[in-house]
Amino acid sequence: MTEFDRQLQRLIDLGYPALAGLPEGDFTDLLAPLREAAGPGGPPDGGRVPYVLVVTRDLVPIEQAVPLTALAGRSRPGIVDRLYPEGDLARFTPTVELPAGRAYLLLDIDRGEEFCGAVPRDAMAVVAGRGRTLLTVEEGVAVVTQYPELLATNKCFSLGASRCGDRRVPALWISKGAPKLGWCWEGNPHTWLGMASAGGRA
Prior knowledge:
By secondary structure, this protein is of the alpha+beta class. 26% of the residues lie in helices and 25% in strands. The protein has helices at residues 3-13, 16-20, 24-31, 35-38, 62-65, 120-129, 137-146; strands at residues 48-55, 79-80, 93-94, 103-110, 133-134, 156-158, 162-163, 168-175, 178-185, 193-195, 197-198, 200-201. It is globular and about 45 Å long.
């Protein structure tokens, strides 16, 4: 099985077609055109992976995708922090240009552990200076969905490409043995929270 097929099958096994309101065959057909751009892929190398299949919130809402995540070797479902009031996540929109369509590839992902302890807005500036892109909330959830081992103790990450106009920066971390989608202030550093980035999208 290729890495692309593995990722696609994982989404199917987790029930993404039903959440998207599509028969399994139609869901597969929707993602199939991405296969050519995916390349061979491979296992995580430290905190990096070659690519991840991303399903947009238009297809599967974030609130439904987060509970389908879990930590490596664990079964407790991910949660959305209660500090996101009902409907608040919809306000966090991309600050970067995304590919057209309801699914795409995120390429050359780095969870950004080098930025653990850095001020988030400073880390975001460094990422931009390298010509890389920050991750959206959907992209961060996609990474943890496919590679649970990338969310590890003291190696969690912010998702700086989803903002709502205030000082909050979404982030994924570990709480009570499960992934948690929360947020931190852009000026507050945390020793366990880096800044995820990617090389591009296709």
